[in-house]
C-alpha cells in the first residue's frame, strides 16, 4: 500500500530572500505522548501544534491537503497553536516530559503535580533555547556551543538529560534538572541547566545524535565515513562504526535498542548490532523505474534521514531522489514509495500510522504508513531485548536458531 498524502503544513508568512530567512524545515518532532507536533518552518520560527488528531481526524484534511499559517485552531482542551520566535535559524528540535513537581520548586510554568512538557530548539548561533510547551514561554537558554546546534536528543526515559550535536564538531551533554551559578558583574545568577560533558572525537560537523531507548548508548553522525558510538554511563567512546563510503548524516536506534541504523550520502542505510559493531544488513535504494528484486541494490541518490517505526518493524528514509521510502525490517527492498520534493527529514508519529516529512521550502507533509499487528514472536523479542544485550542473549542456554532470531540475524 503506497503512502497517501494526508495534509501539508506551509509557512504562514511571505518568503524573504535574505540569507537569514532560511526557509528549510531541517527538523520535525512529535512529543513522546503524541500530543504536540513541532516543526522548524524557516524564518527563525518554530510552530507548535496541539495534536489530538488521530488518523480519522487527520484524514478529514486530506481533501484540501494544506493548512495555511493561520490554520484554524485545533485544540485539545485549553491547548492552542503557538509560534515560537527563536531569533535565529532553527536546526534541531527535541521534546521531553519532565517529572511532576511535588513541592512547587520547579519553574512556575509547570503546574504542581503535572508533567512539564518542554521543547528544546538548536539555533544557528550555538544557543539552545528551552521552551515550556503548554504556555510557549522561554524557560532558559543553554550556552556553550561555538557554532550551529544541528541536532538534539533527550534521554527517552524522561530524565532531563539532553545531548546536543553541533558544527563545532562536539557533542555536549546537559542536565536540565540542576541549577548552575553564572557570574554577572559582582553577583551570580542562578541558571537552570548544567553542562555535564563535552564529547570530542569528530573531525567534521556533527549532523545527528540519537540516544538509545534504554539510555545506555549514544550514536553520533558527522561529515565522516564512520559513526561514533558512546556510552551514556561513562561518556566515553565505545567504538567507531566503519562501513560507509561517504558522510554519515542520520542515525536511529530501534525501540528495543538492539539495532542501530545509519544513513549516508553514499545512499546506503547500514543496520548494525550496536553491542558488537557487526553490520547486519545494507539497504540500497534503486531508481523507482528499475526492477526491484532482491539482487538489485544500487542507490542513486544521497540519503538525508532515516527513522524506525514505533513498533520496530519498519524504517522510513528520505533521499535526494525525491522519494520517501518505507522498508520492512525483514526485506531487502522497499515495501512502499511516495513522491516528495526536496525532503530533508522524517519522523514517525509515536503511536504509528503516519510519518511527517520536512522539506527545503519550509513545508511539512503527513503520509500514511503501514499499520501492523506485531507477531507474538516479535513482541517477545522486543521485550527481551529491552533489557538483554547481544552478549547476554548469546550466553543463554537456548537453541542457536532462537539466539539468531533474538539477535536479528535471521534476515
TrEMBL record:
| WD repeat ranges, renumbered to this chain | 119-141, 142-177, 199-240, 241-282, 296-330
Any idea which UniProt keywords this protein has? Repeat, Ubl conjugation pathway, WD repeat
Matches recorded under Pfam families: SOCS_box, WD40
Give the Gene3D superfamilies listed for this entry: SOCS box (1.10.750.20), YVTN repeat-like/Quinoprotein amine dehydrogenase (2.130.10.10)
What InterPro entries has UniProt attached to this entry? SOCS_box, SOCS_box-like_dom_sf, WD40/YVTN_repeat-like_dom_sf, WD40_PAC1, WD40_repeat_CS, WD40_repeat_dom_sf, WD40_rpt, WSB_SOCS-box_domain
Pathway it acts in? Protein modification; protein ubiquitination
CDD domains hit by this protein: SOCS_WSB2_SWIP2 (cd03745), WD40 (cd00200)
Q: What Gene Ontology biological process does one annotation of this record name? A: intracellular signal transduction
Residue ranges occupied by any SOCS box domain in the UniProt entry: 375-411
**Record-linked SUPFAM superfamilies:** SOCS box-like (SSF158235), WD40 repeat-like (SSF50978)
What PANTHER family does the annotation carry?
WD REPEAT AND SOCS BOX-CONTAINING PROTEIN 2, WD40 REPEAT PROTEIN
Q: What is this protein called?
A: WSB2 protein
Organism lineage: Eukaryota, Metazoa, Chordata, Craniata, Vertebrata
Amino acid at each position: 500500500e503506497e503512502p497517501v498524502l494526508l495534509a501539508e503544513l506551509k509557512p504562514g508568512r511571505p518568503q524573504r530572500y535574505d540569507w537569514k530567512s532560511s526557509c528549510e524545515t531541517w527538523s520535525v518532532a512529535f512529543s513522546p505522548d503524541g500530543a504536540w507536533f513541532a516543526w522548524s518552518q524557516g524564518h527563525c520560527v518554530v510552530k507548535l501544534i496541539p495534536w489530538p488528531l488521530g488518523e480519522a481526524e487527520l484524514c478529514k484534511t486530506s481533501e484540501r491537503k494544506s493548512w495555511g499559517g493561520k490554520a484554524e485552531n485545533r485544540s485539545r482542551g485549553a491547548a492552542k497553536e503557538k509560534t515560537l520566535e527563536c531569533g535565529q535559524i532553527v536546526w534541531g528540535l527535541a521534546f521531553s516530559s519532565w517529572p511532576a513537581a511535588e513541592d512547587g520548586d520547579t519553574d512556575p510554568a509547570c503546574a504542581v503535580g503535572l508533567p512539564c512538557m518542554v521543547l528544546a530548539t538548536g539555533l544557528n548561533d550555538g544557543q539552545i533555547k528551552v521552551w515550556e510547551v503548554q504556555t510557549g514561554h522561554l524557560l532558559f537558554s543553554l550556552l556553550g556551543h561555538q557554532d550551529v546546534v544541528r541536532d538534539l536528543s533527550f534521554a527517552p526515559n524522561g530524565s532531563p538529560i539532553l545531548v546536543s550535536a553541533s558544527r563545532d564538531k562536539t557533542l555536549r551533554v546537559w542536565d536540565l534538572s540542576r541549577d548552575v551559578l553564572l557570574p554577572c558583574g559582582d553577583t551570580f545568577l542562578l541558571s537552570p541547566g548544567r553542562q555535564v560533558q563535552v564529547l570530542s572525537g569528530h573531525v567534521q560537523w556533527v549532523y545527528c545524535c540519537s540516544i538509545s531507548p534504554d539510555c545506555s548508548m549514544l550514536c553520533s553522525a558527522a561529515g565522516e565515513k564512520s559513526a561514533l558510538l558512546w556510552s551514556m554511563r561513562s561518556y566515553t567512546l565505545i567504538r567507531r562504526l566503519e562501513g560507509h563510503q561517504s558522510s554519515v548524516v542520520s542515525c536511529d536506534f530501534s525501540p528495543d535498542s538492539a539495532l542501530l541504523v545509519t544513513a549516508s550520502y553514499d545512499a546506503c542505510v547500514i543496520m548494525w548490532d550496536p553491542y558488537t559493531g557487526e553490520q547486519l544488513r545494507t539497504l540500497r535504494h534503486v531508481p523507482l523505474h528499475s526492477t526491484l528484486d532482491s539482487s538489485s541494490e544500487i542507490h542513486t541518490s544521497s540519503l538525508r534521514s532515516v527513522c524506525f517505526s514505533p513498533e520496530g518493524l519498519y524504517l522510513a528514509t528520505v533521499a535526494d531522489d525525491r522519494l520517501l521510502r518505507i522498508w520492512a525490517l525483514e526485506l531487502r527492498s522497499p515495501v512502499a514509495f511516495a513522491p516528495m520534493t526536496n525532503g530533508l527529514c522524517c519522523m514517525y508519529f509515536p503511536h504509528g500510522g503516519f510519518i511527517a516529512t520536512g522539506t527545503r521550502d519550509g513545508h511539512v507533509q503527513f503520509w500514511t504508513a503501514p499499520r501492523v499487528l506485531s507477531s507474538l514472536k516479535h513482541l517477545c523479542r522486543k521485550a527481551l531485548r529491552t533489557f538483554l544485550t547481544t552478549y547476554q542473549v548469546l550466553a543463554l542456554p537456548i537453541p542457536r536458531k532462537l539466539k539468531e532470531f533474538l539477535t536479528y540475524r535471521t534476515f
